[in-house]
Design brief:
Layout (H helix, E strand, L loop, with lengths): L1 H32 L2 H17 L1 H13 L11 H34 L4 H7 L4 H10 L2 H24 L2
C-alpha cells in the first residue's frame, strides 16, 4: 500500500503541480499576444490545478504515515517541514497573486477595443508604450508571482529527492 501512495504522490506531483507551474508562463505569452480568451482559460486552469495540487499533499502524508519507523519521518522532519512551507507559499502566491493577475489581464484585454490595436500599430507604438500597456494588464504580477512559485516548487523537488 505504501508503494501505491508513493506512486500516486509522484504522479500527481508531475501531472498536477507541473501544469500549476507552467500554465502561468503560457498565460504571459497570451497576454503579450493580446489573446483575452486564452488568458481567461489559463487563469481558470491554473486555479483548478492549484486546488488539485492539494492531492499531492494528501498522498505525501499517506506515504509519510506508512513509511518504515526506522526512517523516523514526521511533519517535524526538517526536509518535510521546509517542503510543506515552500509548497504552501507557492500555492498562496499562485492562488492569491498569479490567478487574480491573470484574471485582471484577461479583463483588460477584453475591454480593449479592436479599434485600439490597429490605431496603436498605425501610430507606431513605442516599446515603452507597449511595456506600460503590459504593466497595466498585470503582466509583472504574473511573471514575478509565477517565477517565485516555480522556484519554490523546484526547492520542494530538491528537498524531496535530497532529503538532507
Amino acid at each position: 500500500m505504501d508503494t501505491l501512495f508513493a506512486v500516486l504522490h509522484v504522479v500527481s506531483a508531475v501531472f498536477i503541480v507541473g501544469p500549476m507551474a507552467i500554465l502561468p508562463m503560457t498565460a504571459m505569452r497570451a497576454v503579450r499576444a493580446g489573446n483575452a480568451a486564452q488568458v481567461a482559460t489559463l487563469a481558470k486552469s491554473t486555479n483548478l490545478f492549484s486546488l488539485l495540487s492539494l492531492l499531492v499533499i494528501v498522498f505525501g502524508f499517506g506515504v509519510m504515515g506508512m513509511s518504515d519507523p526506522k526512517y523516523k519521518t514526521s511533519v517535524t522532519t526538517p526536509w518535510i517541514l521546509w517542503s510543506i512551507i515552500a509548497y504552501v507559499i507557492a500555492l498562496g502566491l499562485t492562488l492569491f497573486v498569479v490567478v487574480p493577475a491573470m484574471k485582471k489581464a484577461a479583463e483588460a484585454l477584453e475591454t480593449r477595443s479592436a479599434s485600439d490595436a490597429p490605431a496603436a500599430v498605425a501610430a507606431g507604438q513605442t516599446p515603452a508604450g507597449e511595456a506600460a500597456d503590459l504593466s497595466s494588464r498585470g503582466y509583472p504580477a504574473i511573471a514575478a508571482g509565477s517565477g517565485v512559485a516555480s522556484l519554490l516548487l523546484v526547492l520542494v523537488v530538491v528537498l524531496m529527492v535530497w532529503k538532507p
